[in-house]
Amino acid sequence: MQIRLRIGGAEATARLYDNATARDFASLLPATITLHDLGGREKAGALPRDLADGQGQSGYRAGQIGYWSPSSDLAIYYREDGFRIPSPGIVMIGEIETGLDTITDADGNATVSIAAA
Fold first, then answer.
1. CATH no. for residue 61?
2. Where does the record place the Cyclophilin-like domain (predicted)?
């Protein structure tokens, strides 16, 4: 499934993976969440509810979108720095295809609107 992420006047597109957590995330759309910078490597923000949990992993790459179950956060990774995600790991649900700089350049607490493309 293709999705669109809009921050201010800028836009990014992404593809959701085919897994239970990504499908549950898609059921929330359209959604608006507030993102904050975390560690200079990701933008994260709380989702309105928990998602179906999946297999977490400790690694990521720039452009991936993940779900952090301990705090029901969406995470969008924009920089790789060797950080290893602690247990239970992050469940990857998608990947930015265009406009990653839209996420990277967002200041402070940015509001992102996410909808099916």
1. 2.40.100.20
2. 5-114
